[in-house]
Structures are given as C-alpha cells and as structure tokens.
Design goal:
mainly alpha, single chain, three-stranded antiparallel beta sheet, 8% strand, two-stranded parallel sheet, 5 strands
Length: 261
Amino acid sequence: IKNHLTDNFPFYDKLIREGTDIPLIILDGLDELSYNVWETSDLLIDIMSDFTKSPYKTILSGRSEIFRNRKRTFHAHLSIKDLEISLAEKLWNAYCRELHVEINFTEIQHLDLIKIPLFLYVLAIIAKSDLEAVHKIETSSDAFRIMLETLYCRQYNKNPNDSYTNLLDSNEYRDFLKCLQIVSYCACRVNKKCIEISTCLTYSAQIGFRETFENWISTLENHKWSKLLLMFHMNINYTEKNNNSSFEFFIKSFYEYFAAQ
C-alpha cells in the first residue's frame, strides 16, 4: 500500500516530509473481497494493525456484517447509523442542486429510504427523469425498479405518443432486464463487483440465452440508451470482445438487486 501511494499519490510523501498534515487512508469494501471473504478480511485486519506504527491514519470500512463476524479486534470501532433528518435534508438539497432537480425535501420526508445516502441519490436520479415517479416509491426495490424504468423510457422513447407501459411491456425491455440479471447473478455467485464477460457468456448458454446475450454485448457501443443504462449501473472494460473483458458494478447493491429478480 505504501509503494502504491508513493508511486501514484506523491503528494502524500510531501505531506509526511513537511509534517504539516497526517494523511488519512480509507480502504472501503472489506465485505467485497473476492476470495474467502471471512478469512481474508481477518488476515487484512491483522496486517493493518501494523499501520498504527506508520505515519498514515487508516480506516477500514465495509458493511456491518463483516465486522460483526470478525475474529480480530480493532483499536477503534465505529458504526455509522442512519442519517438524521437535518443531515438527510442537507444532502438531498445538494443532490438536487447538482442534478438540477426541483422537488422539496418535505415531499420525500416520509420515506424510510431517506436515512440511507445511496437511496437519497437514487431518488434524486429518479426525480430528474420523472418527478411523479418519486411518489410511487415506498421500498428500496421500488427505488431500483423505478430508477431503471424511468431511465430506460426517457432514453428509448422515440415516439412521444408512446406510453411507458408499452415500452416496459416490450420484448426488448424484457431482454434487457434478463441480460442485466445474468451479469448480476454471475457477480453475486463469486461475491465480486467485477465479473468477466466470458463467465457471463458461459452462464447465458447454460440457461439457453446465449444468442440474445451475445447480441446485447455486441450492440452496446451502438445503442446509446443501452450504453447509458449500462454505464449508470456498471462500467464495462473491453477492447473488442475478448476473454479479458469484464463488467464492473459501481455499487454492490445494484447487482444484488438485479440478481434477486
């Protein structure tokens, strides 16, 4: 870690040499380790204990279950609780300014979801596309589903007279959801935010969906609406379509939701 910081973030060394500031390193995603998550997280915690002797201050972060099941102990342990209403409102107003959304916090204040920063952001994304849709949300599943539907319809609706219902009932949308579910399921199976396209292709063949999935992969760059939705939920790294190509979800909650559908 020290070598990585020295090579890629030289200003850390400058801070240390000058002694004016203490660098803070936050290592997030302890629950998202791709190999033997429980054993590896314990090992990492053990290794990180040496950081108490270094000039760096270090925070390990992840979902609460990874810490509840830990075998090692920490020098300090902090659980982040739900947002207070005043802080949720401040964060909501910041999201709305950034996304140019005009909806008062009082209109969403009744939702339990506002206690979680991620869902505040998802609500703002939905409000940017469809203000009315925000009022249909009660649960986290509603939020993810409506976010996907509104983004899809906004980008794909070439005919203003077409209703959202017609678009969402189309074979194209059902195929699109199925492809997202395949990628998500493959990511869930290995507990990784990054999953190789070759793995997804193998699984799609097992369930009799390979031809459609291959077509979807091959047209991602040519369909702006598909690429936009894909990039919102995940990143795609590929140079053509080879075995090293992969999908990478930005947020673990996204692939967990799609995999469960």
